[in-house]
Specification:
The structure is a single chain. The protein is of the alpha/beta class. The chain has a single domain, classed as Diaminopimelate Epimerase, Chain A, domain 1 (Roll). 43% of the residues lie in helices and 15% in strands. The chain is built from 5 helices and 4 strands, in the order αβαββαααβ. The protein has helices at 11-25, 44-54, 83-86, 93-106, 110-128, and strands spanning 31-37, 65-71, 76-81, 144-145. Strands 3-2-1-4 form a 4-stranded mixed beta sheet, with helices on both faces. A hairpin with a 4-residue loop joins β2 (65-71) and β3. α1 runs parallel beside α5 (110-128) and α4 (93-106) packs antiparallel against α5. The chain is globular, with a radius of gyration of 14 Å.
């Protein structure tokens, strides 16, 4: 089996991922989104940046949005954090998440890998952008598709 199959996520995996997003965002003002599409027809990080903008992730109050991007037919994965979170996470943080997620994708465990990566991002968001009573969920937790 390749990195990702045609039926990329089961309904159970989708539910697992949305629950992981909710859990990761529970104690933080940070926002996490997952975008999935079959193909990435341009530079991976440029496409992730386009999706980041399309989903209005740059419009969070503290610039603490995190995008997980998957182009499953092209076997591509990227994670992109906004300026606020990039300024405070430890060196190599995004690479650690990327490597964790890609490792699980290669094992055919997409739901587990994405959920784990999302929770890893949530840990840093909680540490640097703790939840305050006035915080609201600024972006949908649902998976977006292209």
């Amino acid at each position: 089996m390749g990195l990702l199959s045609k039926a990329f996520l089961s309904e159970e995996e989708k539910e697992q991922i949305v629950a992981a997003i909710g859990e990761a965002e529970k104690d933080t003002s940070g926002e996490i989104r997952l975008h999935i599409e079959p193909f990435c027809k341009m530079d991976l990080m440029d496409r992730a940046a386009d999706i980041f903008g399309f989903l209005n992730m740059h419009k969070t109050a503290l610039r603490n949005g995190v995008l997980f991007y998957v182009a499953y037919e092209d076997h591509q994965f990227a994670i992109l954090g906004d300026a606020g979170i990039n300024a405070v996470v430890p060196p190599h943080f995004w690479e650690e998440i990327r490597d964790t997620v890609i490792g699980k994708l290669k094992e055919g465990k997409a739901g587990e890998g994405l959920s784990t990566g999302i929770r890893m991002a949530g840990t840093q968001l909680k540490a640097h952008f703790p939840y305050h009573a006035h915080d609201k969920n600024e972006l949908s937790d649902e998976i977006s598709y292209g």
